[in-house]
Amino acid sequence: MEILHVSAECYPVAKAGGLGDVVGALPKYQNKMGHQSKVVMPMYRTKFLYQNQFDVDFKGRTHIGDYWFDFTIIREKTRKLGFDLYLVDINGLLDRERIYGYHDDTERFMAFQVAVINWINHWEHKPDVIHCHDHHTAMIPFMIQHCYEYNRLANVPTVLTIHNAQYQGWMGWDKSNYIPAWDPWKGGLLEWKNTINPLACGIRCAWKVTTVSWSYLDELKYMSNGLEALFEYEKGKCVGILNGIDAEVWDPATDPMISTGYNPDTVEEGKAASKKSLCAEFELDEQNPLIVFIGRLVGEKAADILPDAILSALYSMQGKVNFLILGSGEPHIEWQLNQLKGHFPGNYNVFIGYDEALSHRIYAGADFLLMPSRVEPCGLNQMYAMKYGTVPMVRNTGGLRDTVTDMGDWQGWGIRFNHASVGDVTYSVNRAVEAFADKEHLHWMRQHMMSIDHSWENSVQQYINVYQSIKP
Ligand SMILES: Nc1ncnc2c1ncn2[C@@H]1O[C@H](COP(=O)(O)OP(=O)(O)O[C@H]2O[C@H](CO)[C@@H](O)[C@H](O)[C@H]2O)[C@@H](O)[C@H]1O
Asked: What's CA 176's distance to the chain center, in Å?
């Protein structure tokens, strides 16, 4: 099958979080199974752009409202990522340093989507599936079905994968002219609670909708930032497919970003070496259990409770535990986490920023990875942690519930708790410290977690089944 993924992120081209990881891996594994899977994404000013060679594939001109723009589609020459990668260059809109966070993100991603369908409309053939990811690309199913100009594509099946329903891309009705002229009878598909809601529109118009875990799909029916009724209504076309992890990038035996490679047989030596250098780098006492957090510092990840929870845990454990944080996000959380640094030298450190290589060193060197997320559609961090023999400490929600068991259960290997609260985190830290002292059990958990298969092959087949089910 020919599958075209449309996404705002794709690792290693541009990544802000888990969406990038998934779109960098899923097409590669689809191709390994004999399909023809491609990715199209915006051309940002990233290192990848300057370090690789591209051919021009297409040049076009189109508009959002009365703003006309030229665009160019370029294709990476060598196919080194394991799939054809196409970048959309829209001068002045997409060619920026960051992926998100500009005042005109609505215009940027609308222009991107319109350029993409304009390009596909010029293909001599049609793809078997257009696979959209999150709200930045969720208007495509509506546009190809109901915009007059793109009628030729109306019967191309579309799939929308929801990686995160918290962000929906809301825009006011004054921006409705960004959408190419559409059948006025279909205007209701755009509307949700008095705004144009691209995610809601995508859920209504895509032929199938997938979420990145089963439990998240269930949760969306009663907690989805205003779309609960829609998920209940559309449940018949929704499927939960758990993300995999890319073993070519995330494997402690072959990871070039860590100094000492290890496998389940050598996990103790390997992790000890990684921990030693990590603790030296961040001036932490390597004898203590090391609990880490990696991620966006936002409410969804419950990063706001980290300062108080760490404070409480350090007092309660009388300094017999260490914390290391890697993340960036809301300024007040960054500030609070930085403030803590001076108070607990040797027990606590933080790196504010985004650093891919450091994240690998931390997964390898840590003993426990904390994820108190309020919302976690799938979560990749806990799966990376497990692959690196690091015990996950997770709130019982979404994909965390689907991938981590509690060590108190028979053959369990992680720590689960119910509330994103200081109390639950402190109690879990107590459990972690006790687990760290029981070296035999810790070793069993490490070996067991490392042997769990989270590879993409299984999930790829489930996506193919979804595509097959909507073949015209
Ligand atoms: N400061 C930093 N430095 C280096 N690396 C950092 C970093 N902050 C985050 N990362 C990395 O970004 C990724 C985060 O992925 P997650 O899946 O856990 O969350 P995210 O909310 O971004 O993804 C959303 O989409 C994914 C994919 O579907 C879902 O798993 C998830 O639940 C959903 O919220 C990991 O690779 C992590 O190592």
From this structure: 29
Question: Within its chain, how far is the Cα of 222 from the centroid?
Answer: 22
Q: Report the nearest atom of ligand 1 relative to the CA of 328.
A: 1
Distances (CA, A) of 166 to 3, 10, 95, 300: 26, 20, 26, 8
**Digitized pLDDT (tens) for each residue of the chain, 472 residues in all:** 999 999 999 999 999 999 999 999 999 999 999 999 999 999 999 999 999 999 999 999 999 999 999 999 999 999 999 999 999 999 999 999 999 999 999 999 999 999 999 999 999 999 999 999 999 999 999 999 999 999 999 999 999 999 999 999 999 999 999 999 999 999 999 999 999 999 999 999 999 999 999 999 999 999 999 999 999 999 999 999 999 999 999 999 999 999 999 999 999 999 999 999 999 999 999 999 999 999 999 999 999 999 999 999 999 998 899 999 999 999 999 999 999 998 898 999 999 999 999 999 999 999 999 999 999 999 999 999 999 999 999 999 999 999 999 999 999 999 999 999 999 999 999 999 999 999 999 999 999 999 999 999 889 999 999 999 998 8
Q: Which ranges in 14-169 belong to alpha helices (H)?
A: 18-32, 47-51, 105-121, 140-146
Sign of the dihedral through C-alpha 460, 466, 469, 471: negative
**Ligand 1 close to Cβ of residue 307 (< 6 A):** no
Max Cα separation, the chain?
Answer: 69
Closest residue by Cα to atom 24, ligand 1, is 18
| CA 458 – ligand 1 centroid, Å | 21
- Ligand 1 atom nearest 21 alpha carbon: 36
CB neighbourhood size of 409 (10 A): 10
Whole-model pTM: value is: 0.95
Looking at ligand 1, which atom is closest to the CA of residue 359? 4
* CB of residue 110 inside a 6 A radius of ligand 1: no
**Helix 267-281 crosses helix 439-450 at what angle (to 10 degrees)?**
100
Q: Spell out the domains of the chain, with CATH numbers in brackets.
A: 2-244+456-469 (3.40.50.2000), 264-450 (3.40.50.2000)
At 197, is the secondary structure helix, strand, or coil? Answer: coil
Before 12, cis peptide (omega within 30)?
yes
**Number of residues written out for the chain:** 472
CA distances from 308 to 110, 294, 430, 445 (A): 40, 17, 15, 29
What is the distance in A from the centroid of ligand 1 to the CA of 21?
8
Q: Which residues contact 215 (CB under 8 A, 6 or more apart)?
A: 240, 397, 398, 399, 401, 402
Strand extents, DSSP E, 65-177: 67-76, 84-89, 129-133, 158-162
